Amino acid sequence: MKNRIGIALCMLCFISCNLFEDGITKWYKVSEETKLWLADSSGFCFRMADQNGITREYLNEQNTHDFSEGESFFGGVKYRISQRENYYQSFSSTFNDVFSFSLSPGYDDGYWGERISLSINSLSFTYDFLLDRLVTVETNFNYLSHKITSSGVENDSLIHSTIDFYDEIEFNGTTYPHVFHFILSDFQQNWTEYTVTEVYYVRKLGLLEYRFKNGLSFTRQ
Known about the structure:
By secondary structure, the chain is mostly beta strands. It has one domain (28-220). The chain contains 2 helices and 16 strands. Strands 1, 2, 3, 4, 5, 6, 7, 8, 9, 12, 13, 14, 15 and 16 form a 14-stranded mixed beta sheet that branches. A two-stranded antiparallel ribbon has the order 10-11. The longest helix is centred in the first third of the chain and has 23 residues, at 2-24. It is globular and about 65 Å long.
């Protein structure tokens, strides 16, 4: 009888704890509109070619969707749990290039919004849809990041690199809808011949073109 009571109490405690945690959990999810920027990567590979016809084949290595948990405590008591949705895709090429793309949700405090992050070789950047600006830029181990507070963005002129969104753009006779174009302008004194300075990316398709400082460019085939 005591064993049954003990088991019942344990089950009640387990259920109560789960109900309590459900009640204090806030879910932050990526919108359907923003998810359209992910590439369709099922069984996925694609080719890029430079001006000389040399090709690089990219293979999808990772395609994940998960939630990262955060906890807030006051006086030793947990009073809030956050679950943030994340999407991450990564690819590598036959020439050891590494390309990745990720999505993260905004917060309901209005400080910042949903974000896309792209990385290719030594270049990476993050764009915030709510703030409508680049919020981080990194290349060759040099890094810039906007500080964002309830008052807005501090040091508005910190990042000089740009990102522009187009309803459509034409490449090699093909018209691509919903494209963004990134241009690196920061850390020019640290650029090398193979620093990636421009990136074109197409919604649902993925990487369209990237260009190096030396003028070499690779375009989707």
